[in-house]
Amino acid sequence: MSKKFETELPEDYAELKKEANYTSSWRDRIAAVNELSTCKHAKVIDLLKNRLENDTVYKVQEAAYKALIAFGENVEPPKVQKFDIIKGTDKILIRVKKSLPADHTFEDFAGKLERMRLDVYDAYEGHKGKEFKTWLEQKWTSLNK
Fold first, then answer.
1. What is the pLDDT along the chain (145 residues), one digit of tens a residue?
2. Which Gene3D superfamilies match (predicted)?
């Protein structure tokens, strides 16, 4: 028995599309993808394919993939990125570090990164999950050498 989907665009499609593409919050993107996964419509399918192929956070890619498979689309599963999920991450981190006083703490660094480059902070937080703070602290420590 196949699952029944809505075929009309939801009334709040424009808002959901905006949230699905919002670069500063992977949580907003995944929530929008999950909400859109109930509507089998060409525009939704295109949007989900875009998230599958272009999102920086694996969890969002995976949610889009599952929705597309449920719709019967023939798509390849996402691959977990092994290296920088955002090009030039090390340069960004160095720039943040250089903007702080020499005696800054890790908390200062993490806070400044979040304020200066929320997109980077958010993408890695979503990608790394529970290991995010440990990973970021290791990066910060390596920049101090």
1. 456 777 778 889 999 999 998 877 888 999 999 999 999 989 999 999 999 998 888 889 999 999 999 999 999 999 877 667 888 899 999 999 999 999 999 999 999 999 999 889 988 998 888 999 999 999 999 887 6
2. Leucine-rich Repeat Variant
Rounded-to-integer distance, Cα 39 and Cα 114, Å: 34
- Give yes or no for a contact between 126 and 60, defined as CB atoms under 8 angstroms apart: yes
Secondary structure (DSSP) of 23-51: TT-HHHHHHHHHHHTTB--HHHHHHHHHH
pTM: 0.70
Q: What's the DSSP call for residue 2? A: P
In 3D space, the residue among 50, 108, 59 whose CA is nearest the CA of residue 85 turns out to be: 59
